[in-house]
Design goal:
3% strand, globular
Length: 283
Amino acid sequence: MAEAGTEIGKASKLKTLGVRAVSGLALIGICGFPVYFGGWVFMVLVLVFTLRMMWEWVRMSDKQAGWPSYCVHLLGVVLALCAALYQNWQLGFLVVCICAGLAVLIRLKQGGLIWAILGPFYIIIPSLAILWLRGSGIGPAAPGFLMLMFVLAVVVAADSFAYLGGSLLKGPKLAPKISPNKTWSGFIVGGVMAAVIGAISAFFIGFSPLTGLLLALPIVLFAVWGDFLESYIKRILEVKDAGGVLPGHGGLLDRVDSLMLAVLLSTGFLLVWPGLSAGFLPI
């Protein structure tokens, strides 16, 4: 009976992995064209994704949310990203602050003010960061495209190989009270493979594979922390998934939680170390 249960568990894991793979490939297909061309096309993609994530956030964090709450949060997304379209990042940040303030006013009577404050910053700031990171230009001729592709390759590798490694090797849990399905084996396999992918990506982009490997490691850590952060928030709010738009993943927020902190870290790297972008210039 135990062996039968194990076989059923493995089959279930493989089935889930297949569903996740199909959903992931579909997401890549949707994002490929806008990421390549950048500009307003990429802006539209980020806007649609951010609106969906913000809707999931309000739904998840405020069980009593009415139309004023949804309107304030969604309008905040539109205005902040429109400011980013015109490269006015300070105005975009100001909109986020105003959105958080209005969200607090709406929730004054029912409480949960921490979620009202956190939502706009948690959802909109990474979206502004990814727009800044991608920048303008088309395809490999644009440093922003190469930088974003590097980050995406590392994060996707870390997430995919962590799931695969954890499913096959199992072993001790990484943080059972926050995310009971994640294991140390998955974390190690995902981290190693993401570092390898980072080195390979760096080689094809045209800078040192060692630099690519070293850049991949902190990106992996922040991706894992981003995953844990959303898991921790969902555990506090007693929510299993942020939504159900992606089979095998849950909501869109469940799918990109790792990318959000990784993008913030990459943006921070470039703000502190502007010369790093020279490594992503086309050769």
